[in-house]
Amino acid sequence: MQDTFIQAYPKLLQPSVAVAGLWLAHGDEPLLSQWLIDALRPHWRAQNYAIKRIELISVKSWQEVLSELGSQSLFDDASALIVTGNHKPDKAVITELERFAVEAQTGTHSHSLLWLTPKQDKRAQSSKWFTPFAQYGHVIDCNLYNEQQRQQLLQIQAQQFGLRLSQEAWQLLMSHTEHHLLSAYQTLWRLSYLFAPQLVAKNIEASQQTDHSTQLKNNIALDIKDLQAALVSDAQFSVFDLSDAMLAGNSTQVAKIMFQLKATDEPTTLVLWAISKDMRQIMQLMDGQDPQALGIWRSKQGLYQQACRRQSKTQTAEWPALLYKCDQAIKGLVRQPAWELLLQAALELSGKRLFAV
Question: Tell me, what DSSP letter sits at residue 79?
């Protein structure tokens, strides 16, 4: 079965989805691949799958994939493999993949294999290696072909954030972000934090409703003025810029951004969220966890690995205490100004230690 991303994605957001078998996602938009994984992950977890990732470094790597699918953990019901790389399987592996897909359809096993590849043209889609996925599995075209598809996907994301934008607000969003998918998504993300108090109240109300249309009415309705408040001009910075500077180890830029955020009254809770998120993920990576499993976009994995190399376990062990102190300062429970502690934490993450924690 072959679908475009815009056709497949809403189906994957439904409560129950059969995920066993072969999945192939091809495209040159990394964000769509990440959204696909994010949509499948809850189904894998709900069905007690062991989620693993394998990088194809050669054709021989397919033997590792087949071996992993053939193994069975004592603690998990099945395996979900996320495979990346563009090395095509040989004839023997194609036969095994076809058998794997057929057995998944008949219920012999519940394993799931998702292969993420660059965009495949019509010639590639007529190749023998493509057949098991197209004939017995799921092929998802992760490419956007027009502006309508882009806005449809962003509307789904806005709904996930609990937001509902007016038509004028959508036009401004697409114009301001120059029709760039990631930039528009980050703006929606920022909006969800700016309107967090209202969203919490709405979510409490929506949780008591069983009708989906009623829940949609409980989303926060935003007009063009609300959107303008969330847009950041070229002379300003956001917590996303702070995250990039911290991970890159650019302490001078970190300090500049922090002073700008303070001057523009950026919520201290949002700044602490950005710092604590990156600190937690660095600690998890240093403990050996997989970046893909942590939801780190592939485009930022290099920055996170760079940040890990600047730190030691001794240093990161002190981070929870520093974050707790920041939280206490924000709540007014300690006398030290919150922005001073937030700056200390941000510089600590960038590799510039001011004081012993």
Answer: E
pLDDT band at 73 (very low <50, low <70, confident <90, very high): low
Tokens linked to 215:
């829940």
Segments of the chain assigned E as strands: 2-4, 21-26, 49-55, 78-84, 112-117, 138-141, 163-165, 220-222
pTM: 0.63
Separation CA 353–CA 33 (nearest Å): 37
What pLDDT sits at residue 190?
A: 78
pLDDT digits (tens, 9 = 90+) for 255-289: 989 988 888 788 898 899 999 999 999 999 999 99
Separation of alpha carbons 343 and 15, rounded Å:
42
Calpha distance 170→55 (Å, rounded) = 38
Mean pLDDT of all residues belonging to the chain: 86
Whole-number Å distance between alpha carbons of 174 and 140: 25
Residue 84: other Cβ atoms inside 10 A:
15
pLDDT in tens, 180-239: 888 888 888 878 877 766 656 555 555 555 444 444 456 788 888 777 766 654 446 788
Q: Which two tokens stand for residue 343?
A: 């700056």
Is the pLDDT at 309 greater than 60? The verdict is: yes
- Quote the crossing angle between the two packed helices 147-160 and 5-12, to the nearest 10°: 10
**How far is residue 190's CA from residue 231's CA, in Å, rounded to a whole number?**
9
**What is the spatial distance between Cα 201 and Cα 204, in angstroms, rounded to a whole number?**
5
Cβ pair 150, 181 in contact under 8 A: yes
Nearest to 265 by CA among 303, 229, 314: 229
Could you tell me how far CA 326 lies from the centroid of its own chain? 26
**Residues 245, 193: contact at Cβ < 8 Å?**
no
* Residue 312 Cα distances to 175, 267, 286, 287, 309, angstroms: 43, 30, 9, 11, 8
How far is Cα 90 from Cα 105, in angstroms, rounded to an integer? 23
121 by Cβ neighbours in 10 Å (0-12 / 13-18 / 19+) ranks as exposed
Q: Which residue has the higher pLDDT, 82 or 213?
A: 82
